[in-house]
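Researcher: Structure for this, please.
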Amino acid sequence: KYGMTQEFMGRFPVIVQLKQLTEDEIYRIMIEPKNSVITQYQSLVDCIGSKLVFEEDLLRSIAGNAIQTGTGARGIRTIIEQLVENIILDLPNKKNIEKVLVHKGMLNNEPPKYIEHIKPTHTPKPKNTDGRPKRTDRADRPNRKNRKPRQENKD
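Model: Predicted structure, token format:
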């Protein structure tokens, strides 16, 4: 009844003091949310046909860098984007890449580790002595003479 209007109250500056995030909290921000930065890049690389794997040491180092530079959780996306940018651009041109391992050495400009998909070797079908393939499907079928007769339900 005798208070101030909302329009007038909105003009007052709001000052909120926050404590700085710890390294563990920033690490959790990177991996726990459903739509985290890590998950977004992993789903982007999944669309290309490979898997993106981040080492835990790398993620802990990124969290430490974010604290040292003072960017906090806002700096995570920038750091990860710089690491993954070339992978996303190069990956469509590479063949048979199953996984890409993003490791701690990449912070020192080392290349990522590409893990290739190894195709299983073809096992030839067994052949008869005359060179024709053996028919292995008949061995699994029961012999008609040895079949049990059907039992009828008497209800």
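Researcher: Any notable elements?
Model: Residues 20 and 70 are 9 Å apart (CA to CA). Residues 76-90 form the longest helix (15 residues).
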